[in-house]
Specification:
The chain is of the alpha/beta class. The chain has 16 helices and ten strands. It has a domain of 159 residues. The protein binds zinc ion. The site of zinc ion has 4 residues, from loops.
Length: 417
């Protein structure tokens, strides 16, 4: 689109509205990048678009503010010089199966190289995955060194507690027919619900059934790798993993009403051990705050739990959530296995999670889980006993099932304690 026409609003909500056929269709699940084709969500050249939504969708409104205030050129395109992945990932055979990966673009980190010719020809293809390297340091890891549970090796783990990691950020890219299959609903029903629940933000969901790929305006995930990433996907490689759903209050601020940060830190410890023995450790951190109900709902539930007659106790833990949110949980682990398929992982040797839903989703996806590693009892904060008992009673992996009468006892603090 030329500059002169940029004052017009161009709707992409009907096939052919842009006056020309799309040049680049997406053939999801094809084995090579060339056959699959780039995901194009250009906002300034709607004739190119073959996807619904926009890149970095969760931040689209901030981008709008930047454009509206004049801080950002509306037709800015990223200069991708030197942004290539710091470690190679894939391609793995799972990338060529349209059913195995439906919620991320397996070529998302390689866009600048595999679609270089498209980009040079003016196509607005952008990475949806970035892979870099870092050092991390958490007080819990220093404690583990002091307690003798972890031994610094000068490579993966330093004496000062620094841990060398590779990390990847992944924005969601949804292949709508595949998402509908995963949830066993009709694609048209899925599209309609997405259209309605975003208050009509994306009209193409209902007017453009020919566009099969959607960049949803939600948070994605971050991966932390311990050890040699290149070993992933090879049959002999042992893998340890913690799959963690975001909990800002605990993860960042150390709030003691749940076991999130202690379990995350324990998972990282397990990952470091595995990497030191020649395997690979992996933490998957999903932006699904408060069981994907959001933090406002979560804090409302905390109040409802602590103010209810009889005090905060396990037997009413899920009911209080359901009263406020209408459901107990919206994380929907059906999409979670995609990231393991992306990494070529078919077996997880040490799985630092007690969630039956996460475990069930992995097994359903054909990924073997060898050993399940529960959080050590000593790491569970006092106020988190309610949550832990409730989850165990609801089917969490444990050898220590709480007695029925135990679930009726108030164990959580009152609001003003
Ligand atoms: Zn938590």
């Amino acid at each position: 689109m030329t500059r002169q026409s940029s004052d017009h609003i161009v709707l992409s909500s009907h096939p052919g509205a842009q006056g020309q056929a799309r040049l680049h269709d997406i053939h999801w699940g094809k084995p090579t990048a060339a056959e699959r084709g780039p995901v194009i969500a250009s906002l300034t050249d709607v004739g190119q678009r073959n996807a619904i939504g926009s890149h970095a969708g969760a931040y689209a409104v901030y981008r709008a503010l930047a454009v509206a205030s004049g801080a950002l050129q509306r037709d800015h395109r990223p200069d991708l010089t030197n942004t290539a992945p710091a470690e190679p990932i894939g391609p793995h055979p799972q990338w060529a199966d349209p059913d195995k990966i439906v919620s991320l673009d397996p070529w998302g980190h390689l866009v600048a190289s595999v679609f270089a010719e498209h980009i040079a020809a003016g196509i607005d293809a952008r990475p949806t995955i970035a892979v870099t390297k870092a050092h991390i340091n958490m007080p819990e890891l220093k404690d583990a060194i002091a307690a003798g549970r972890l031994q610094p090796d000068g490579n993966i783990l330093s004496d000062n507690g620094d841990v060398r990691v590779t990390k990847a950020a992944i924005d969601p890219v949804w292949y709508l027919p595949g998402i509908a299959n995963r949830f066993e609903v009709k694609e048209s029903s899925l599209r309609r619900a997405l259209f309605e629940q975003t208050a009509g933000m994306f009209p193409e969901l209902v007017t453009r059934p020919d566009l099969k790929v959607f960049l949803p305006p939600i948070g994605g995930m971050t991966l932390y790798f311990f050890g040699d990433v290149a070993k992933l996907g090879k049959p002999g490689t042992r893998v340890a993993c913690r799959l963690h759903d975001e909990c800002n209050g605990s993860d960042v601020f150390g709030s003691d009403i749940c076991t999130c940060r202690p379990y995350l830190a324990h998972g990282i410890e397990v990952c470091i051990e595995e990497a030191q023995q020649g395997g690979v450790g992996l933490v998957v951190y999903n932006r699904k705050e408060g069981r994907a109900l959001g933090e406002v709902t979560k804090f409302l539930v905390y109040n409802a739990r602590k103010r209810q007659p009889g005090g905060d106790r396990a037997e009413t833990y899920f009911a209080r959530t359901e009263c406020v949110a209408g459901v107990q949980d919206m994380r929907f682990q059906q999409l979670m296995p995609d990231v393991f398929h992306w990494l070529g992982i078919t077996r997880i040797d040490r799985w630092a999670s007690m969630s039956d839903m996460k475990h069930g989703a992995l097994v359903e996806a054909g990924i073997e889980v060898v050993e399940r590693v529960p959080i050590p009892d000593g790491l569970i904060p006092m106020d988190a006993r309610v949550e832990m008992d409730a989850k165990k009673a609801a089917g969490y992996f444990t050898s220590d099932m709480p007695a029925a009468e135990d679930l009726t006892l108030p164990k959580g603090r009152a609001l003003d304690e």
